[in-house]
Amino acid sequence: MIDNKRMKRLLTILPVVCMLVTVGCGKRLPPPPDGMPQIVPCVVAVCFGGQAIEDVTILFQPKNRTDQWSAGGTTDANGKAVMKTGGYYSGVVPGEYAVSFRKVESVELDRQGMPMRSHSAIPVKYTDKHSKETITVTEKQSLYVFELEGVSP
Q1: Are the C-beta atoms of residues 146 and 100 closer than 8 Å to each other?
Q2: Phi (first) and psi of residue 75, to 5 degrees
Q3: Average pLDDT of 4-25?
Q4: Computed from CA positions of residues 122, 123, 125, 127, in that sequence, does the dihedral angle turn out positive or negative?
Q5: 102 and 75 in contact (C-beta within 8 Å)?
Q6: Looking at the 3D structure of the chain, how many domains does it have?
Q7: Is residue 114 in some structural domain?
Q8: Residue 19: inside a domain
Q9: Is the model's pLDDT at 23 over the cut of 70?
Q10: Do residues 70 and 60 touch, judged by C-beta distance below 8 A?
Q11: How far is it, in rounded angstroms, from Cα 135 to Cα 146?
Q12: With 36 labelled, which of 25, 92, 110, 151 sits at a CA distance of 20 to 30 A?
């Protein structure tokens, strides 16, 4: 049984704890930047060798060089990534994008322990400078599937 002293302490602390939990758990996104166009939901599923692949970083770069709104995401255990514009906002500005993929498998360190070179589990043909993959994001579609082929390096 709780004595009066403990009960008073609990009743004093409880509202403060509740307030902190409520305020602390409500992560707020920064307001969208001025001029940011409307975004639409976009989920990307990535398979490699017929299997969903986790921890793949996906980057959408606008094909129209005047567009500044790229998007990115990282696949979960089911091989799916919710794409985000500006790193915060779930969704993508409709349009055409060049798509690249990366999954760091290992990192070589130099003698001082600094990263020197990384090895990707995704074939080079899908990485930034080499990828020929493209996508057209529309308001009518929200799931896009990429079946990557080849042998990991």
Answers
A1: no
A2: -70, 145
A3: 48
A4: positive
A5: no
A6: 1
A7: yes
A8: no
A9: no
A10: yes
A11: 10
A12: 25
Q: Report yes or no: 72 and 60 within 8 Å, Cβ to Cβ.
A: yes
Contact 146, 134 (CB under 8 A): no
Is the pLDDT at 6 greater than 90? The verdict is no
Q: Which two tokens stand for residue 103?
A: 């999954």
Is 67 contained in some domain? yes
Whole domain around residue 56: which residue ranges? 43-148
Helix (H, G, I), strand (E, B) or coil at 7: helix
Predicted confidence band of residue 27 (pLDDT cuts 50, 70, 90): low
- Domain containing 128 — which CATH number? 2.60.40
Query: Which position has the token pair 């070179």?
Result: 117
pTM here? Answer: 0.74
CA distance 89 to 98: 19
Q: Is there a domain that residue 29 lies in? A: no
- The letter for the amino acid at 49 is G
Looking at residue 92, the DSSP 8-state letter turns out to be B
